[in-house]
Amino acid sequence: MQTNLGLFLSKRAALSPKVEALVEVEKGRRFTYAELDARANRIAQVLQAKGVQKGDRVALLLMNGVEYIEAYFGAAKIGAVMVPLNWRLVPDELEFIIGDSGSVVLIWGEEFDDSVKALHGRDLPVKHWLRAGDASSLPDWADDYDAVTSAAPTDEPEIHGDEDDLLFIMYTSGTTGLPKGAVHTHGTMAWASLTINMTADMRYRDRYLQLLPLFHVGALTPATAAIHRGGSVIVMRAFDPTRVFQVIEDEEITTGLAVPAMLQVMLQVPAHKTADTSRVRWFMSGAAPVPVSLIETYADLGIEIHQVYGLTETCGPACLISPEEAIAKAGSTGPAFFHTDVRVVNEDGKDVEPGEIGEVIIRGPHIMKEYWNRPDATADTIKDGWLYSGDGATIDKEGFVYIQDRIKDMIISGGENIYPAEIENVLAAHPGIAEAAVIGMPSEKWGESPAAIIVPAAEGAPTAEEVLEYCQGKLARFKQPQVVEFTDEIPRNPTGKILKRILRERFPGPAPS
Questions:
Q1: Cα–Cα nearest to 49, from 120, 130, 112
Q2: What proportion of the chain, given as a percentage, has pLDDT over 70?
Q3: Tens digits of residue pLDDT in 459-512
């Protein structure tokens, strides 16, 4: 069988035509594999009729839903290259990605009319504009997505694209500088899906809850893996903590993925104490270190939290903690996935000793091909087949990896290396702290000192002095925060990663000497 991701859907539809493939929670729409495959064929036929050829880029600015999934698989069938767009970006940021990728088609949802209208007329490579939503407000320069796809045939299109051909270009979050486009092929995604299915406890007819936006690899890859395996993907258009537990109960959810910030806010919803979660086996969680206290709280609910570590550049997989080790090795993100090699190395590229902090490097058939139009950045990131992550970690004798923090976020205080995640993990266990982030604050005496930025809980909020006292005995003295600041919100990107750069701008210091 040709290694084309679009054919993965075709094959699953042939094997399991009546199995429920996709559920849209908000709209109440349900699609079997046969129905989803037919819809993917329709959008593929539409794109081909518009002259889209193998290698052409198709940008998506859509909320989670059937249009996103069908466009992804439909474009894959004809060898077109999907460019997921982060819908939280402003028009100028979207303009850069669309222009840098050379996207010739833009498919967007009516929620983003203002942004797209701001883009139309700019010097962009887009030739075809397809808009999903209420046709009564359709711009005269755009096609009605629903109308053109409904009129298209459901026949399988002529298949283009194989293992080494491009599947999608996913732009990194761009927390510093302009975003870079990680290029993945049909082969890298096929291996990523296979790797997840061979490592995680994913089963035929599982009901997988999709909470993250599909423009992120932590959403797109697990959804692909669920479809590959023959599960049902239950999609929420956007994360709504007040509804999650009702969805878990109504849709009989068995598995899912949520970043730690999502899991934390879900516990603030009263329904977490009353909802029937008995069918849920596990939730993966990543994008940031998962506090041990959070793992233990969900364990009390009967839900295993499996910390996962991965990157856009690895198409998702790097490390995963197993069900057997999730509590015994709490705090670890586990060993490498099945078809993956992971090492932790020092500045000379040599493996560190157990417990010593180094940089995580990853090798496997699922790592990206390159950064789009960035040979310099590609050469800096992929060396001798190993992808250098920029993340600091330790590794124990059994090969379990403990992520510490981004190396660039490391605090050097009086010559000592301090990783903020270690301090954040301690602070997260305080009952009066809803969220915490730690940054390095300039210090005349030490160079840098740890500063804790805290969102207090609704009840039992501590004073700054109480926070400092709480850390005593839990952290070495040089790791203890020297400054405590309070805020209403910790800034994060769409995948839940804390934007330390913004915090450093808001709280410039200096720390007291």
A1: 130
A2: 97
A3: 889 999 999 999 988 887 888 999 999 999 999 876 677 888 899 899 998 888
- 472 has which bridge partners? 475
Closest CA to 351 of 401, 307, 276: 401
Q: Could you tell me which residues come within 8 angstroms of residue 105 by beta carbon, excluding any fewer than 6 positions away?
A: 47, 50, 52, 56, 57, 58, 59, 80, 126, 127, 128, 129, 130
Sorted by where each starts, the structural domains of the chain and their CATH numbers stand as: 5-19+32-184 (3.40.50.12780), 239-406 (3.40.50.12780), 410-506 (3.30.300.30)
Q: How far apart (Å, rounded) are the C-alpha atoms in residues 166 and 481?
A: 46
Cα Rg for the chain, rounded, in angstroms?
23
| Strands 20-24 and 447-456, sheet pairing | unpaired
User: What length is written for the chain?
Assistant: 513
pLDDT one-digit tens code per residue, 136-174: 999 999 999 999 999 999 999 999 999 999 999 999 864
- Residue 199 above 90 pLDDT? yes
Place of tokens 């949520």: 258
- Cα distances (angstroms) measured from residue 159 to each of 3, 7, 10, 69, 380: 11, 8, 11, 18, 35
Global confidence as pTM: 0.85
pLDDT 10s digits, 181-198 = 999 999 999 999 999 999
**C-alpha to C-alpha distances, 482 to 176, 446, 485, nearest whole angstrom:** 26, 11, 10
Amino acid at 484: V
User: Which H helix or E strand runs over 220?
Assistant: helix 217-229
* Cross-sheet strand order for the sheet of 128-132: 143-144, 128-132, 103-109, 57-61, 81-84, 166-171, 181-185, 370-371
Question: What is each CA distance from 7 to 39, 67, 243, 493, in whole angstroms?
Answer: 13, 18, 34, 33
The stretches of 258-381 forming alpha helices (DSSP H) are 260-266, 292-300, 375-381
Check: CB of residue 252 under 8 Å from CB of residue 275: no
User: Could you tell me the two tokens for 242?
Assistant: 């007040």
Chain centre to alpha carbon of residue 394: 23
